[in-house]
């Protein structure tokens, strides 16, 4: 079937926008242009429910009626928008998150960088701290009004995951109200509430998503190097790329280092543990009498992910099997409702059934104060949406938080544990 003239015009204008980036002066234009060449221009296929633009890390699709109506400057901005979705690996990092809200969160993270680079986005673009503008020709469900208010209250500079977490409560309420309502047949725009272009999953399997993310990481590094030959990258785009170049710290390494430091004084490799020698395994032996003990508090409020908790418990077990210690495990929400003890040799470190409620760390730390001996450490697994105790314990505290953005704590050290880590 011969493409319609509208489709022909859309593809021509898409190539013109990409060429405009290639011909433009400046380091930012060079950066976006190099990456835009990775995306194959195409008209939006019917199976993608979107009436703006979209990308999956391999294509850049446009909806002709919407795309052809944009100004030349807006089309260039939308190309940059789709490029940054890929550069931020939004096509491969969604996981089990809601597709539409993930796109909103991604828009909030990248749109500031695009405008700081001097490019123009459609007026309906989403921006942290600003009330959203309804895209032309669309009607937004009134149930989403609280979400708009939440967006207007957001700060700039957070990650996509952090924006998602902050918006999820209002989004869930809106979805609950809308789930029994029938659409009016114009649902294709629902995946792009920001009206600047959406992001689709790169693949339906973890291996494919990992490959896409790695491919784009390498491309971003190369594009940044080429762009810097034209001068410094502007504003927040330059800051983001500089952050990417910093070496990444594995949270597992931080946890291992913390536990090794607080437990090392009681053990020595010069006195191997006799219990493991028979299996050909040499572990440090105890120099003082008795095992040291630490406390593990688990905030079981609804926002704490079970899968992340299980992985974290595996890390803790691996370290304590090398640096033996007893663990007092406290499960709590607004009070401590379960306790259990664990030490190496007693099987896998698992916790009992958790209940879901509010959160306060006061009862957990009061229980710690009741212990006869001072613990060697406290590990607190939490979303940090909590009531903190007034006084710290007399031992190091490491807060393992499921929040992607930075939160302040009255004492101890915060270690973010994001699901994508």
Report on this model:
By secondary structure, this protein is an alpha/beta fold. Helix content is 41%, strand content 12%. The protein has 13 helices and 12 strands. It has helices at residues 5-23, 27-36, 64-69, 72-87, 99-116, 145-152, 160-178, 206-228, 235-245, 251-263, 274-277, 306-322, 362-369; strands at 40-43, 53-55, 59-62, 198-199, 267-268, 285-286, 293-299, 326-332, 336-342, 378-382, 397-401, 413-416. Strands 9-8-7-10-11-12 form a 6-stranded mixed beta sheet. Strand 8 (326-332) and strand 9 (336-342) form a beta hairpin. The two termini are 46 Å apart. The model is unreliable at 184-189 and 267-271 (pLDDT under 50).
Number of helices: 13
Q: Could you give the order of the helices and strands?
A: HHEEEHHHHHEHHHEHEEHEEHEEE
The biggest beta sheet reads: 6 strands, mixed
Distance between the termini: 46 Å
pLDDT < 50 stretches:
184-189, 267-271
Mean pLDDT score: 83
* Beta-strand content bin: 5-15%
The percent of residues in helical segments reads 40-55%
What structural keywords apply?
six-stranded mixed sheet, alpha/beta, 12% strand, four-stranded mixed sheet, 421 residues, 41% helix
Helix-strand blueprint:
Layout: H1 5-23, H2 27-36, E1 40-43, E2 53-55, E3 59-62, H3 64-69, H4 72-87, H5 99-116, H6 145-152, H7 160-178, E4 198-199, H8 206-228, H9 235-245, H10 251-263, E5 267-268, H11 274-277, E6 285-286, E7 293-299, H12 306-322, E8 326-332, E9 336-342, H13 362-369, E10 378-382, E11 397-401, E12 413-416
Parallel strand pairs: 1-3, 2-4, 7-8, 7-10, 10-11, 11-12
Antiparallel strand pairs: 2-3, 5-6, 8-9
